[in-house]
Batch of 4 targets.
Target 1
Amino acid sequence: MQKLKKLKFQLINELKPQKFKKILDLGCGEGKLSLSIANTDSLITGIDKTPKIIQDKRFKHVNKDLLNFKFNEKYDLIIVSLVLHYLEKLSAKRLLIDCFKNLNKEGILFLICLSKKDYLYNQNKSNGFFSINETQNLIKSKPRIIKEFKTSMEKHKDNKLYHKHSGIFAIFQK
Ligand SMILES: C[S@@+](CC[C@H](N)C(=O)[O-])C[C@H]1O[C@@H](n2cnc3c(N)ncnc32)[C@H](O)[C@@H]1O
């Protein structure tokens, strides 16, 4: 078992050496995941409700709540990593469906989300925690990869207690 941070970067590396021009990173945080997969000519749009300063010419940070986000263009790669559990379940489902719809031909949806096995589920049962089956039923396309993960005990910046995470990781291709 691995720590979540290490696992995230190991998972996004599954997309290398593919090249992505237009990247959307929803709930981007500091944009580290999208920047790690971007090329010199990639254009990243990162949406996060918390203002962030990301000093990289390829990165455009949009300070917005995902509940108010509307697609008006298509992308080669959409990253949805560890953010759906902050949204109410119906909104999270709609967002996931919209992400897949708004991919360019052969575009990739890269998803990491928490499942009901995660300890946070008991605190937010009406939020977006997804199983493999639920995700596949929503996206209605055969995933290139879909698997469950469990992390080792760790402590994060926002939570002083040691805990594990359980979730799923998926790559869908349009
Ligand atoms: C656990 S962090 C994940 C960051 C990044 N995606 C990653 O995997 O490294 C969750 C991020 O989602 C953002 N977030 C949570 N709820 C949101 C919402 N309703 N709209 C926009 N961003 C949100 C938080 O501000 C935070 O930066």
Target 2
Amino acid sequence: MTASPTSSYATKLFVINIADKILLVHMLTIVMLIIIRVICTLTTTTKTATLPPGPLHIPILTSLLWLRKSFSQLEPFLNTLHAKHGPIIALRIGSRPSVFIADRSLAHHSLVHNSSIFSDRPKALPTRKLMSSNQHNISSASYGVTWRTLRRNLASEMLHPAKVKSFSEIQNWVLDTLTNRLKTASESESFMAIPHFHYAMFCLLVFMCFGERVSVEKVNQIERVQRTLLLSMSRFNILNFWPQFTKILLRKRWEELLKLRKGQEDVLLPLIRARKQNKGSKSVVSYADTLLELELKEENHKLNEDEMVSLCSEFLNGGTDTTSTALQWIIANLVKYPDVQRKLVEEIREVIGGDDSGLTKIVAPGGETLGGVIGAFQHMI
Ligand SMILES: *[C@@H]1O[C@H](CO)[C@@H](O)[C@H](O)[C@H]1NC(C)=O
Ligand SMILES: *[C@@H]1O[C@H](CO)[C@@H](O)[C@H](O)[C@H]1NC(C)=O
């Protein structure tokens, strides 16, 4: 009778012992890996070019300290460093050095006079590399033929005023949808305007991207995958710390990232494929159409599906938050300054000649929509 508890106790002890040993082996491996890494880093840094002055960098440890800091802590920290080391300093945040310039003439000299040296983008970190199909989006492609091809395609095929005109029918439809939604929502006592702006921008951008008026559910689905990815990217930064190592230790988080990317492909790819299949019967030229035609001279191939997903995703992201936030601010300020609002209405009346029928359309925030999209993209590229 008494044997069983004792034996289970013994088993427990044995299990704990084994667990301890496994843990110890794990810890030792980690410590050894860190030591090897430190040695590797120390031997390679001696070969890199001399950097501007900055605080002491201890491989691994400094990166770990940075991981704990929030972005808002960066500016005050930089100010103290500039006071100590001068206007140009180098900091090692993450796996590569960043140079900060705190003097406008020096900044002008480097970014304008010597722009060719600084205009390239660094190699993407592993999680970002995955999301942009190895830097195949305009905002991360390295400076060169591929970047120029992608940028020119967007500027001349989509954002050129003549091309924007071809979307006027859908602009009006989106504007009507937005005004109706805002009118209905404003009947309740308090409401948030931003989700309606988001939705309107998504409807417009999804149409411009895939040339198709998709269902409300589909728009919501696209918006969901895009937003989830956008908001969770910072959570995956830690995976870049040392990828070979995090691929083992943080396998679950890598899988989560791959799943999110897969979810995005599942939603966007069918729309791209549909465009590929019904060649010829198209009333407008969508962004996906231009991508299907595009040839990357430098890499000597057409864009693959993965790259097209990344570019479409960039197109959708690039114009949504930027424009909706601008619209929200415009509306908030019009509410806050009634005299500005009155002046605006008067100006509109002058232009449309006292005919109030079109007024809601122009006063409605959506009137700014396309200008906003173009502005946002011009900032981005
Ligand atoms: C940077 O620009 C100046 C001219 O403003 C030029 O004299 C200098 O050679 C450039 N430096 C490099 C490294 O190209
Ligand atoms: C382009 O790809 C990079 C990753 O390399 C990503 O950080 C960035 O958000 C992407 N741009 C847009 C607008 O989605």
Target 3
Amino acid sequence: MRGRVQRITWWVILLAAGCGLFAVRSLAQEACLQCHETEGLSITLPSGESIPVTVKGKDLAASVHRDLSCTTCHPGQEKYPHPPLAAKTAREFRVASARICQSCHSDAASDYSQSVHGRGLKLGLADVPTCQSCHTAHTVKPAKDPAFRNNIPLVCGNCHGDPQLASKYGMKEVYQTYATEFHGVTTFFYRVTKPQEVSPAAVCYDCHGIHDVKAVDAPDSPVNKQNLLSTCRKCHPQAGALFASAWLEHERPALGKATLVYLVSLFYTILIPSVVVFLGVHTVLDLWRWLMDRLEERRR
Ligand code: HEC
Ligand code: HEC
Ligand code: HEC
Ligand code: HEC
Ligand code: HEC
Ligand code: HEC
Ligand code: HEC
């Protein structure tokens, strides 16, 4: 009998402790949100840049991190005024904030640190992506979420379609060429018409890797000449040796680069509008003749 009472007492204590913890967590969350849901709240950094600090509780609640409390990711922010910020610029703030993600996701973090982007970060390049650039901070979606996959070309394209960034780093603007080839067009249709289904066509990371994106000429890059065919074969298992080499990659056809493709498309660019104009003129003349004939008949 005594053992049973003791057991019940333990259960009650455990339950109370559980509820207590939950209450403390949601209390803290409430306290943060009481200020942070205010619209228009922002912080101005010494660089003069301003960062909005409005955070929506429901965004976090809809993310993969719904079970984390604010202070798990932001320890030391419990009191207000908050401790002074070390970051002088928005970039410094983002780079420091990415360490929050790395503390829990060490696999992704170590792949990233070996990538062309992670190495760029170590070198202090101002434009390489950090974790939040691709995942956001408070609205992180599951990796297998179809909408996340179908949207990836735009996420990468934010930078890899920007002409200024391209010329700064001597890279091609690849988003524009991707968006007009079969994989890009198919993925675009999925994004717009079937956002809850995964595009089967290749998106950027199917060819380049996810966190371990390499410079395209690196020996271990999945898109260098030696590895490209096996990368295509993940989805085109029948592909023969010429399959990959016949493909234009991110190249725009021009004189001297895929000259035949360029000339054929130039031919059609001229032919199709000419035919349309020709047909238009033909129809107008035909109508004119018809009208004139009718008027002639009436006059007679
Ligand atoms: C009394 C209102 C108030 C409360 C409560 C509050 N904050 Fe803030 N917080 C602010 C304001 C205002 C800023 C803008 C910068 C500043 O004035 O310090 C800010 C800035 C921040 C920043 C960005 C700058 C930095 O210091 O890193 C984070 C992150 C942050 N708060 C997290 C939290 C968390 C987490 C909680 C709850 C544990 C919380 N805040 C509670 C008002 C508040
Ligand atoms: C999974 C970790 C995580 C959780 C949970 C989290 N944050 Fe954040 N938070 C971040 C990261 C990372 C950044 C940096 C974002 C960036 O680069 O702009 C950030 C930035 C902020 C900022 C600065 C403004 C901004 O958006 O950049 C505020 C304010 C803030 N968080 C408040 C909160 C509050 C309040 C909660 C709880 C409702 C919360 N955070 C929960 C990771 C988290
Ligand atoms: C305190 C630890 C912690 C921090 C900090 C944290 N995460 Fe997470 N993250 C988790 C946990 C736990 C899950 C698993 C949730 C689940 O399975 O539903 C998760 C899930 C994810 C997923 C989905 C994984 C999948 O397989 O679908 C992504 C993406 C992710 N986190 C990215 C981030 C990013 C980006 C940051 C920084 C803004 C971050 N995480 C910060 C603990 C953390
Ligand atoms: C250049 C864009 C990009 C950057 C930067 C990035 N990720 Fe990801 N991440 C992705 C994509 C795309 C996926 C989904 C891939 C898939 O289908 O599994 C993913 C998947 C994940 C996952 C779930 C699958 C896994 O690998 O465990 C986690 C966790 C994650 N990322 C965390 C991070 C963290 C932490 C960082 C920063 C160190 C980061 N990511 C930086 C694009 C990025
Ligand atoms: C079907 C495979 C495939 C897909 C999908 C793909 N790429 Fe590529 N990518 C390649 C190959 C092969 C190269 C190397 C040849 C070249 O530069 O055209 C390359 C080169 C690059 C380069 C280097 C360009 C340069 O200046 O040398 C970048 C950056 C890049 N891709 C980013 C992207 C982005 C961003 C996406 C999505 C919008 C994407 N790629 C989609 C295969 C692919
Ligand atoms: C925030 C901007 C940004 C985002 C987002 C981004 N990148 Fe990059 N990426 C860069 C910059 C900047 C470099 C140049 C780094 C360097 O030269 O060291 C780069 C380099 C590369 C390279 C190497 C190019 C070469 O010359 O060999 C590839 C491949 C690449 N990125 C692919 C991707 C893919 C795939 C994604 C999306 C999953 C992506 N990037 C998202 C900024 C970005
Ligand atoms: C993630 C899977 C995937 C990868 C990786 C992939 N493709 Fe595709 N590819 C597809 C799908 C699905 C289609 C058909 C839908 C469409 O037309 O977009 C397709 C269509 C094509 C087509 C149009 C002709 C046809 O067979 O329908 C060519 C050419 C092509 N891919 C070349 C390549 C090359 C070259 C590579 C490697 C550099 C590659 N693909 C990598 C999935 C992939």
Target 4
Amino acid sequence: MKMFGSIGTRSLLFGVHQFLWHPFTVWLAWKELYGPPSWNETVCIAFHDIGYWGKKNMDGCDGLRHPEAGAELVGRMFGEEYRQLVLGHSRSYAQIHKISSSKLCWADKLSIKYELWWIYLPRAWASGELKEYRAVADQTGFIDKNNSHRTWLNKLKEQMLSQAKEEGTKVKGVELELSA
Ligand SMILES: [Fe+2]
């Protein structure tokens, strides 16, 4: 699959961050958390991960900088507020650069609710992301490499949904149904 470019490029073309499907699930999650997004917010959702293009890893030094390209683009179109919205969508990026996580961060996390294992895992496998994610999960003690991919995905879902739920309860009037 390496003929399709770096792991970040493959992720956008047919992997976990597939450029049509992933933003669609984030849009649904945003709607659930905050109500329907505005046009500007929808554009931010559409382009938030474009910075993965050409990235040599997902969670390493290179991949961690992925919010910058999308932020630059929407910043030029709509201004600083939207630049920050995209820049703060990655919690790791926000922590490293001492900026606040944005509303897009929680919608991004909740979006995994709309992923079914048989849609998600084949994409993650084909792009090569699965190998990286499992290695990182093993190293950090999140889940041992001997567990199945489906067990890993279930645990990942649980973690991401509880983070989104935590934040969701701070957003007035939000009721989350996290039984996915
Ligand atoms: Fe995303």
